[in-house]
Amino acid sequence: MSSTLGVEEFLQRSLPEWNDETRMQARLRAFSTQDENFESHFEFWRGVILLVARAHLQATIIKTEEVRNVMFKRGGLKPLGLDQVLVEMHRRRQLQSFRGLMGSYDRSWIRWSVVQLARSATVAKQVVGGLLGGEDASGIRLDEEMVIMDLLKERADKVETEITPASGHTVLLLDPVLLSIHQNPREAQLVLHELLRRRRVALVSTVAAGKEVRGVKVAARGEKRVPAVTDQDRQRVHLKSAMRGLEERAEALMRRAAEARETAHSAVKKKDRALGLRCLRRFKLWEGAARQCNDYAAKLEELLLQVDQAEVTQQVTSALQAGVQTLRASTVTLEEAESCMQQVDGALTSHQEVQDTLGLGAGENSDAIDSELAEIEAEIAMEGLSLDSAKKVKPKKDAEATSIPGDTEASASQTVVQISSIGDWQAGAPEPSGSAELSVARAAQGAPTKGENMQSERTSA
């Protein structure tokens, strides 16, 4: 855990209320859960603890003794209500004992159950001991290491995002993962156990050259939980461990080679030719060994890539086999297809015969309906023509009644011409222009009009 020095200066810069003398005097006073403003005091000091642990200490583990007596002193005065804040945070499970939490993260469910029973017995013992004066009655020891659960979840989420591959699961060596999580091994171990609890990672262990090698298998993005550990995962851990050992050995050899070259350079400056030659021989020897280690590491990396490719091939093959089985289960044979097509052709032929039979009767009825419709249209046209003729005769009679005497002879002669034209038309001559006036004249003489003649011809037919 980081040093608690400089907490007051950090709060003066980061928390404006810390510099308000009046408000801080009220915050430093003692309070209990029965006070009406207890929730306000609790949220303030809880926020202060989270702020210091997250931004200043960068830790998820705190010691209750430092929080109570050292960390949050202001002007030499320590807050008197921090005991109640820690007790309430522990009651709300925002603080948990480091030892109890690590015990609950055990991979064996049987072991976990035993740990839970032991924790229950420990809590009861702590309460009794608190009543006797040895420990706090809340179950929190004065020197207890407590874990801030909110910060632990934040850090676990961040690490999970960093190590989770975009597609497929991966296997990593444990030690580099722990170093990437936190410099403090206890903090790193705590985050790792939180990821184990979430089923986002699984421990992979194998033995190489009589030495245990550990790694973690990380679930892919989108997977609800990490798959079970397989022999291929253990082989990957073995290969990565050997490759890492070769790389570290190559780096060490290159450092020794560089030192030998510098020694040779110094010997040549001092005119010590024999020492320079010995150092150059060592340089060549160590440089060649380092190059050989790098070559071996490259071969192991290539082999590891082939193992990954083999797993991908296996997954694709399994998917193809599943697809083939599904296709075979849903495939229709040639005989079934031919029988189905024959049934379809027979049904279509029968349906077409029925449609042809129905269509013939419908055609006869349609001809009769069309004939009746033509007669109705002819009658309507004849009625319309008669109405038009009547409308034109009436204005002409009015005009004759209002005509001047000088025009009587001209009208009479015109009438004679029209009558003669009517006679010629009845005899078979072509109808002259002005058929509308001739129709009026025929109607006036009682002669049949052209529409009446067409109707009579149609009736005779």
UniProtKB/TrEMBL annotation:
Keyword Coiled coil: yes
Domain of life: Eukaryota
Coiled-coil intervals, chain numbering: 236-313
Pfam entry (one): Snf7
InterPro entries according to UniProt: Snf7_fam
Keywords associated with the record: Coiled coil
Region (Disordered): 391-461
GO BP: any one term: vacuolar transport
Compositionally biased intervals (Polar residues): 410-423, 452-461
Keyword Coiled coil: yes
Name of the featured protein: Charged multivesicular body protein 7
Organism: Klebsormidium nitens (Green alga)
